[in-house]
Amino acid sequence: MGFCMGGMYCFKSAISPRFARIASFYGMIRLPEKWRSATQGEPLDYLRRGDASKVLALIGTADPYTPPHDVDELRSVGCSVVAYDAAEHAFAHDATRPSYREADARDAFSRAREWLLG
Fold first, then answer.
1. Which among 11, 15, 31, 117 could disulfide-bond with 43, CB atoms 3.0 to 4.6 Å apart, if both were Cys?
2. How many folded domains does the chain comprise?
3. For the chain, which ranges sit under pLDDT 50?
4. What's the CATH code of the domain at 44?
5. How far is CA 100 from CA 5, 8, 17, 89, in A?
């Protein structure tokens, strides 16, 4: 389970047989331009080469790191996706942040728990 950058690494971990189930909270689906390099692969490439069906992605529809066309690609490679309408990045992170949404956070953590315990 990971959040933001950790959520991105969750996508990348789909290539590993070490994990039976993976939960990504608002993980970056594509690398930001300044992060791209020969040693930093795209999360979607790892998902395509790994087992994307073991990944649950919990995202907000208003998150700039999870634009709709990228979310469509997550679904097309086989990830399970739960999208929270109008939720911004870090909607489940910290109750003191303006982006926090209590009902969505509770739902997301509940779904992640169910997914991981399978």
1. 11
2. 1
3. none
4. 3.40.50.1820
5. 18, 20, 33, 9
* Phi and psi at residue 16, to the nearest 5°: -90, 135
Q: Give pLDDT tens digits for 19-36.
A: 999 999 999 999 988 988
Residue 38 CA, distance from chain mean position: 23
Strand partners, 62: none
- Which two tokens mark 79? 């990830």
What's the predicted TM-score (pTM) here?
0.95
Going from the C-alpha of 69 to that of each of 17, 92, 96, 101, the distances in angstroms are: 28, 22, 30, 23
* Token code pair at residue 39: 């040693």
Using left for φ > 0, alpha for ψ between -120 and 50, and beta otherwise, residue 86 falls in left
Domain with 85, as residue range(s), is 2-32+40-117
